[in-house]
Design goal:
Layout lengths: L2 E2 L14 E2 L3 E6 L5 H14 L4 E5 L4 H10 L5 H6 L3 E5 L5 H15 L5 E6 L2 H6 L3 H16 L2 E8 L13 H6 L2 E7 L8 E8 L8 E7 L3 E4 L14 H9 L6 H12 L3 H4 L4 H12 L1
Parallel strand pairs: 3-7, 3-8, 4-5, 4-6, 6-7
Antiparallel strand pairs: 1-2, 8-9, 9-10, 10-11
Helix pairs in contact: 4-6, 8-9
The structure holds adenosine-5'-triphosphate and magnesium ion (MG).
């Protein structure tokens, strides 16, 4: 899988290098969590790496988004819009069902580029456009399928309620459909640690399972703290674990041993969490003996 950088400072190593190209990512958070800022950073990164980008706003109008981008220190957004490497689709106030089934469909059919980035901010009004769960799923599936033809998709989702625990029903369907889910847990009324980022899932990729503090910094946008993640990076091959496996080689069928050798070699201790090396070896041996 080819990785592309998110544009969010500190985040890429937590996703083993970035998000997978041509995948769909959902960024979920309450009001003020930094969803639009995240989407702008994602698009900015794409444009700076020479990709074509599309920003679909279903809520704020073009001027508002530009103002936010400029406030974040990104004056060049105007140049990208002028030269049309950045296309802005303002769908705020539209009939979303019709927009997805017709306008977006035609837009994608006419699209000539390859490997673009597309941000949809926020996806929530689409969910509200239809009441029936089945129809909601169908519409979102269609939206993601259409946009994925254009390239790598990032959509944001509003999280309502005060719990910030992803239990709200408005986020459930897109969470299942997306390849990667990032939660921006923002508790406005809490103290200094009121912003925490958690990667909920990322298909076909290793990712950090920790909670990471993040800040929104003027001119930079979201900056995610890696914490002690650096100390337990993937690259430290678990030498002790390999030795234990080698010791138990005779207890495993030959093909299994070869495969396990390859698998364990690329593991990191962070993936094992509290599972100790002897414990893991015991489970493997038990499974095949
Ligand atoms: N220039 C800036 N400097 C520092 N912090 C900023 C700046 N701009 C925005 N922020 C922070 O980012 C927050 C808003 O971020 P953003 O608009 O991305 O959130 P959102 O999740 O999209 O919110 P909503 O759901 O209301 O659209 C602000 O409340 C503020 O804390
Ligand atoms: Mg927003």
């Amino acid at each position: 899988m080819k990785k592309i950088k998110t544009g969010v400072f500190g985040l890429n190593p937590l996703l083993d290098g970035g998000i997978n190209e041509n995948s769909t990512t959902a960024v979920i958070g309450s009001s003020g969590a930094g969803k639009t800022t995240f989407a702008i950073q994602f698009i900015r990164k794409g444009l700076e790496s020479g990709q074509e980008c599309i920003f679909v706003s279903l809520d704020e109008n073009k001027e508002q988004i530009i103002r936010e981008a400029v406030e974040m220190g990104w004056e060049e957004i105007m140049d990208y819009l002028k030269e049309e490497t950045l296309v802005f689709i303002d769908a705020s106030g539209k009939d979303f069902s019709n927009f997805i089934r017709k306008e977006l469909h035609e837009f994608v059919a006419d699209w000539k580029g390859v490997g673009a980035r597309i941000a949809i901010d926020p996806l929530t009004p689409v969910i509200w456009a239809v009441e029936n769960n089945y129809e909601q799923r169908e519409l979102i599936t269609m939206l993601l399928k259409q946009t994925r033809k254009v390239g790598t998709v990032l959509c944001t989702l509003e999280e309502h309620g005060t719990e910030s625990d992803l239990s709200g029903k408005e986020t459930i369907i897109p969470m299942y459909l997306a390849d990667c889910v990032i939660h921006l847990r923002y508790k406005a009324m809490e103290g200094p640690k009121n912003r925490m980022l958690k990667i909920v899932k990322c298909r076909n990729s290793w990712h950090s399972e920790d909670f990471h503090q993040y800040r929104i910094i003027s001119g930079l946008g979201l900056v995610v703290q890696q914490g002690d993640f650096e100390k337990k990076t993937k690259k430290e091959a678990p030498a002790e674990l390999m030795k234990m496996l080698e010791k138990n080689a005779t207890l495993l069928p030959e093909g299994v041993y070869t495969k396990m050798h390859k698998t364990l070699k690329s593991l990191s201790d962070s993936e094992l969490g509290d599972i100790t090396h002897p414990e893991l070896i015991r489970y493997i041996v038990d499974e095949y003996s």
